[in-house]
């Protein structure tokens, strides 16, 4: 396992649609191990492969106190409701903002063993993380959901955002 450098806003890989994983092989398993280590090293709650420079549809989510979830080729199959949440991103360091996310989210994808998995989350950090990470593999950052960059807050100067999850 090794940590990998995190890509930041402006790097092309973060702004393009990632490719589907045709088959879970050794290189994908190594990628996932490195992503989990990189996520933990940076105190993140989730990480998508484009955030370590790999244009593939792979995400990991590590809600504190819960087992890490790995999703290969994840897709949102259902979402409903709207809520406002505070959010940060390891690829947009030093900032946070309030964004609109769904209340409930259903996602399907495959795990590292290639088994089909379906995850339902409602009104929690997992629901937020699923939408944030699946946005990443579609080349979308949370700041793309803001009406104006004026809504972006600096972490260092506005303590209110200290609880914002870094995803
Ligand atoms: Zn992010």
Quick rundown:
The protein has 167 residues and is an alpha+beta fold. The chain has helices at 26-41, 125-137; strands spanning 46-48, 58-61, 69-80, 83-88, 95-101, 104-110, 116-122, 153-154, 165-166.
Q: Can you tell me the CATH topology?
A: Peptide Deformylase
Q: Can you give the helix content as a percent range?
A: 10-25%
**Strand pairing plus helix content: what structural class?**
alpha+beta
Element-by-element helix/strand order: HEEEEEEEHEE
What's the gyration radius in Å?
Answer: 15 Å
Share in β-strands: 25-35%
How far do the termini sit from each other? 20 Å
Runs in which pLDDT lies below 50 for 5 or more consecutive residues are none
- Would you count the extended β strands for me? 9
Can you tag this structure with a few keywords?
167 residues, Peptide Deformylase, five-stranded antiparallel beta sheet, four-stranded mixed beta sheet, 17% helix, globular
Task: Describe this entry's structure for a reader.
By secondary structure, this protein is α+β, with helices and mostly antiparallel strands. The protein has one domain: Peptide Deformylase. The chain has 2 helices and 9 strands. The strands form 2 sheets. It has a 5-stranded antiparallel beta sheet, with helices on both faces. Strands 8-5-4-9 form a 4-stranded mixed beta sheet. The two termini are 20 Å apart. The site of zinc ion has 6 residues, from helix 2.
């Amino acid at each position: 396992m090794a940590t990998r450098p995190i890509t930041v806003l402006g790097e092309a890989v973060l702004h393009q649609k990632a490719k589907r994983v045709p088959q879970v092989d050794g290189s994908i398993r190594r990628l996932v191990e490195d992503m989990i280590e990189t996520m933990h090293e940076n105190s993140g709650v989730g990480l998508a492969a484009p955030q370590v420079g790999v244009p593939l549809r792979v995400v990991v989510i590590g809600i504190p106190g819960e087992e890490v979830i790995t999703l290969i080729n994840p897709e949102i199959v259902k979402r409903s409701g709207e809520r406002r949440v505070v959010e940060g991103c390891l690829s947009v360091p030093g900032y946070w903002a309030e964004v609109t996310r769904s209340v409930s989210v259903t996602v399907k994808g495959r795990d590292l063993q290639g088994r089909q998995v379906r995850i339902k989350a409602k009104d929690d950090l997992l629901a937020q993380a699923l939408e944030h990470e699946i946005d990443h593999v579609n080349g979308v950052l949370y700041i793309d959901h803001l009406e104006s960059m004026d809504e972006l807050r600096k972490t260092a100067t506005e303590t209110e955002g200290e609880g914002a999850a870094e995803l």
